[in-house]
Amino acid sequence: MTPLLSVRNLKVGFGATEAVRELSFDVPKGATLALVGESGSGKSATALSILRLIEREGGRIAGGTITLHEEGGPVDITALDERQLRGLRGNRISMVFQEPMTSLNPVLTVGNQVAEVFIRHRSMSGRQALLAARDALDSVRIPEPQRRLSQYPHELSGGLRQRVMIAMALACRPKLLIADEPTTALDVTTQAEILSLIRDLQAEIGMAVLFITHDMGVVAEIADRIVVLRQGRKVEEGAVADVFGAPKHAYSQQLMAATPKLGSGSPAAPSGASKLLDVRDLTTRFAVRSGFLAGRRSIEAVRGVSLSLGRAETLGLVGESGCGKSTLARSILCLIEPSSGAILLDGQDVMRADRQGLRAMRRHAQMIFQDPYASLNPRLPVHDLVTEPARIHGVVSARDQRDLAAELLQSVGLQQDAVDLYPHQFSGGQRQRLCIARALSVKPKLIVADEPVSALDVSIARQVTDLMLELQQREGISFLFISHDIAVIERVSHRIAVMHRGEIVETGPSQSVLRDPRHAYTRRLLASVPRHDVSGRRAALEPLPAKAVPAGPANGAGLREAAPGHFVRENAA
Amino acid sequence: MLRHITRTLFKMVVTLFVIVTLVFFATRLSGDPIDYVVGQGITQEDRDLLTRYYGLDASIWEQYVRFLGSFIDGQFGLSFVERRPVAEIVAERIWPSLQLLLSGVSLTILVAVPLGILAAIHRSNWIGSTVMTIAFVGYAVPNFVLAIFMVLVFAFTLNWLPVVGNSTPWHFIMPTITLAGALIAALTRFTRNAMLDVLSQDFMRTARAKGLSEAVVILKHGFSNASITILSVLGLQIAGLAAAGNVVVEAIFAWPGIGDLLVNAAILRDFPVLQFAVLAVAFAVIIVNGLIDIAYAYADPRIRLGRA
Questions:
Q1: Domains parsed from chain B with CATH numbers
Q2: Contact status, residue A75 vs residue A67, Cβ threshold 8 Å
Q3: Alpha-helical regions (H) of B212-245
Q4: Which of A255, A529, B17, B261 is the most exposed place for a label (fewest CB within 10 A)?
Q5: pLDDT (tens digit per residue) in A93-137
Q6: What are the chain A neighbours of B3 within 8 Å (beta carbons)?
Q7: Would an 8 Å CB–CB cutoff place B216 in contact with chain A?
C-alpha cells in the first residue's frame, strides 16, 4: 500500500548549518507516526518543511522530495508554487503548534479565526462559515461553542485554546495532521485529554498524524510508528512496540533511559534527619481588582499550608499550573510576603525577622529558577555571576573570588577555566549548572528549586538532577524541589507533597504516596501521566468534577494520617 | 470598558486644571503688558488707570481666582489688544487650525502606514532599505527648512502655488506637506518596527499554515495587531503637532489658526488671549490623547474585556 506522505533524502539548512540531513520516512494512511528527538534534532524543521513554511522561518529546503499521495496522483510539495501551497495548507495538510498561548491571534475572535478556514477553503459566506465554526468547536468537545465564537483567545484556558487550534486544523478534514509538540506546554491532565481527543478524531476522520515530540511517554500513548532523530539524522525507525521493546540504536536507548518514568523508584530517605524547615499554616493572599466600583477582593494563592523538611532531605512539591506551588516557594523565602502562618528555618522564625535577620536567613536558603536563560545576567562574566551571593553576604574577598568561582564550577561539573566566559557561551543545561553553582557559593542549608529542569531536554535534565542528588549527598543540602512533572519528582524526592488549588492535599514518603494515592486529585494526576507501556493504552480520563475538592478549613487542619508519615486531606474521595 | 472611559475622562479634567494654573502663573512672569498695550511715554496716572481697568492691580491670587471665574461665564475675559471677548477671537481660529491638522494627519497615515508595512515585508531587500533611507532623510530635515524650500520652488520660481492664507484648496498643499513631512518619516519607521514585531509572532505562522493568502495574513492578522502600537504613537504625534508643529507652519504660511494667534499674543503680551490659546491647544492635545486611549482599548480586546 502506498503511504500518504513520503519524505525522501530531505535536506534543510538554516544559513550554513544543516538542520536536517538526508532524512527519509513514510507516513502511512490513517496511522500515527511519531518524530522523536531533543532540541536541535531537526524535528520541527522537518514539520515546517512539509508545509513549506520553513522558508518563512529563515530556513531552506536544500534537497530531497516530499510527496503527498492523493487520489489524483502524487504531488511533490517541494515543487509547488505559492498559490498551490495555499490550497494545500489548512486544507489537505494542517498543523497544530506547541504554544497555544501565542499561536492564536489575540485581537481576533475565536469564531473569526476558525471561520476564515471555511471561507478560504470551502468558499463559504461569513454566516455559513460561523455556523460551521460552531460545529467545529463542538466536534473538539469545547463546551458552549456558540458563546466561544465571540470570545477572544485570552478568555480561554490553555487546554481550550489548544482545542481551538485543533478545531481550526481539522476544519477541512485534512488527510494529514502535523502536531508539533501539541501538549508540551500543557498540564498532564490537560495533556491526557488532548491526546485522547486527537486519537478519537483521527478515528473519526481517518486522517494520518505526524506527531512531533521529545516525550517518550507521549509516543507510547499515541504513535503506531516512530522515527528517532538526532542532529538532523534518523537514527532509528520502527513500529512503536519494537522500538520500545528493544531499541537498537544506542541513542534511542539513552533517550528511553533518560525519560523519567513513573514507578522507577525514589532515593532512600536519610535516616534520623533533624528538621531544617518547618512551615506552619502558611497563607498568602493577593489583592485583585474585580471590577468598577466593586473594590478589591483577595485571592488565596496558598491556603493554610504546613510542611516540614529534614536536613539532607528532598521534598518534592508537585502540582499543575496555577496551583500555587511557585507562590508557596517564594513565600517560604519571603520573596513574597506571606499573609499569615509561621516559617521556621533552622529553628528561627523567618517571618518575624528584621531586615538583618532576613539577610542572614537568605544566606542559608537559596533559589534556582526554571529558565536558565533569563536568570543569568548576560553582561556579567561567570566568575562574577556565580560568586555574587557570596559577595553580597561578605563570605568571599575580592581576591579569592576567582578561586571560589573555579572551585564552584568544578563542583557542578564544569571546566574551571570557564570563569571568564559569559552566559551566552553556555548551553541550557550548563547554564542551569551555573545557577546551581551560584546557589552553592554561600554554602546554603536549603535550596528551593522551582521547576529547575522543565526547560531542559530529558537527557540534560537527567544530568542536572543527578548533580543535585550528588551535591545533596556530599554537602548535606536540603532541597524543596518543585515540578509539574511527577516522574521527575519521584526520582529526586524522599517525600512528596501534592498541591491543588493552594492547598497540600496529600503528603508523605514518595513511594507511599505514589503507590497508594489516597486523594482523588493525586489519583487523577497519576492516571494522567503517560505510561511507557505500548500494550495497554488506557481509556479516556474521567473528568474531575469542578467541585470535587471543596475548600477545606483554611487553618491547615483536616489532614489525616493514612499510613506512617502519609497524610491526606480529609475530604479525599 | 466603561471603567476605562471614566478613568480616561477623570485624568483629562485633572490635566486641564494643572495646565490652566501653570499657564496663568507663567504668563504673569513674562513682564508688564501695559507697556505693549499703550507703548512708552504715558503718565503714571493713565498707567494706573489702565492697570485698574485690566484688573492687574489686584493681588496675584485674586487675579487667579478671577481668572478661574472667567471660565464660568464662557467669555474668558477680554483681549487687552482687541477689546473683544477672548472666546470669540479664539473660536475664529480653531477651525482653520483643525482643517490643517486633519489634512496633515490624514496625509501622514495614508503615506506612512503603507510605506511602513512595505518596508517591514521587504526588510531584507532594496525596497525596504530605500523606504527606510527616504524616511531617515525626511526625519533629518526640519519642517521650516522644508517649508522655505517649497515656497522658493513652487511659489516664487514656478509660481504654481499660493503662499499666504487658506482661502482655496491650493493653499492647503504646502502647509499640509510641511506638517506631514517629519511625521511621515517617524511614523513609517514606527510602523515598520511594529509590523516586524508582529511578523515574527507565532500566530502569523498559524495564519499561513491555514492557507490564507499573504494579503490576509499581513493585513488581517498582522496589521490588526500592529495597529494597536501604531495608534498609541500616532496619538502622541498628533498631540505634538497640535501643540508645536502648527505654530511654525502657521507662522510661515500666515495661516489664520491658533498657532498664528499664539505667536502674536505672546509678542503683544495679550494675557487673556495667550492663556486661552494655550489652553485650547492643551485641550486639543488632551482630547486627542483621550480619544486615542479609548480607540486603543477598542483595538485591543485584552484591555476592552479585562484580563482573564
A1: 2-69 (no CATH), 92-304 (1.10.3720.10)
A2: yes
A3: 214-215, 224-240
A4: B17
A5: 999 998 888 899 999 999 999 999 999 999 999 999 999 999 999
A6: 291-292
A7: yes
| Separation CA A567–CA A441 (nearest Å) | 35
Average pLDDT over residues A203-216: 91
The answer on pLDDT for A296 being more than 90 is no
Q: How far apart are CA A37 and CA A53, in angstroms?
A: 20
Closest CA to B299 of B246, B238, B234: B234
Sign of CA dihedral A486, A492, A497, A500: negative
- Is the CB of B158 inside 8 Å of chain A's CB atoms? no
| Domains with residue ranges and CATH for chain A | 5-258 (3.40.50.300), 277-569 (3.40.50.300)
Select from A49, A81, A86 the residue whose CB has the most chain B CBs within 10 Å, as the one to mutate to test that interface.
A86
Return the ∠ at Cα A170 (arms to A165 and A171), rounded to 5°: 95
User: What backbone phi and psi angles, to 5 degrees, belong to A211?
Assistant: -105, 120
Is ipTM over 0.85? no
Could you tell me which of B185, B79, B73, B72 has the C-alpha nearest to residue B135? B185
Question: Is residue A429 a contact partner of residue A258, using CB atoms and an 8 Å limit?
Answer: no
Strand order through the sheet with A176-180: A93-96, A176-180, A208-213, A32-36, A225-230, A233-239
Check CB contact of B10 with chain A, cutoff 8 Å: no
The interface residues of chain A toward chain B in range 161-180, judged by CB-CB distance below 8 A, are: 165, 168
